[in-house]
Design the sequence.
């Protein structure tokens, strides 16, 4: 007997698009959250980059912020600069409840991984504190990680790593040093499920890499063999 599930899913998608049409966050054109024209205009991060934090620069050496940084994370990568249409998309996704854009954004991450392979065997989203999760209603990093897991077939673990301290938002800190101090000791790992795993940490945006590094420190302490960070965009 031929399964009807794919057909039902397709019909459901058509019905949802009819009832709730998608409009580009960049230009307003109907069709998708980021239309083809706006995708072509996205500010992509091209080599050379800092091998540690992934910041674009004029050479492939460590940038000034990473030279003396004893980082726990193996490296951080991002396909886009945090500006223009991507900035608008992340803002709508993170603060305006546009959860449906997660699928398209995750495709961007999947395409980046295809062109720039990273060693990983499990996907872990950067967690929110339960208080902030209650305020927002969802973890945008968790939605991205879940969609990426569907695309790649790589399993996701969104329960082992937790944010145990409610700290000041990183966006409200003034400099790199404050960001690094602000995340010390705020994460913990509840079990050893990530022991000897190659972890891919997912978040929406990185600035200094402090949050991803704090996660990596905890994961490696509990036995992860490697931890790479992948975010949709990074502030330059």
Sequence:
């Amino acid at each position: 007997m031929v399964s009807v599930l794919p057909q039902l899913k397709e019909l459901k998608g058509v019905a949802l698009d009819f009832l709730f049409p998608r409009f580009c966050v960049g230009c307003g054109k109907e069709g998708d959250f980021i239309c083809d024209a706006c995708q072509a205009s996205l500010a992509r991060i091209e080599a050379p980059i800092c091998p540690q934090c992934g910041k674009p620069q004029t050479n492939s050496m460590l940038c000034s912020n990473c030279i003396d940084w004893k980082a726990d994370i193996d490296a951080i990568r991002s396909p886009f600069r945090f500006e223009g249409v991507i900035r608008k998309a992340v803002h709508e996704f993170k603060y305006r409840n546009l959860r449906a854009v997660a699928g398209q954004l995750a495709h961007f991450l999947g395409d980046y991984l295809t062109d720039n392979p990273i060693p990983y065997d499990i996907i872990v989203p950067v967690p929110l504190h339960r208080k902030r999760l209650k305020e927002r209603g969802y973890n945008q990093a968790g939605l991205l990680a879940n969609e990426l897991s569907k695309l790649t077939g790589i399993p996701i673990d969104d329960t082992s790593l937790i944010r145990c301290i409610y700290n000041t938002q990183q966006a409200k800190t003034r400099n790199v040093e404050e960001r690094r101090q602000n995340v010390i000791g705020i994460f913990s790992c509840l079990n050893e499920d990530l022991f000897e795993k190659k972890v891919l940490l997912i978040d929406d945006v990185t600035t200094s890499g402090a949050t991803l590094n704090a996660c990596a420190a905890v994961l490696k302490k509990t036995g992860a063999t490697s931890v790479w960070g992948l975010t949709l965009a990074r502030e330059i």
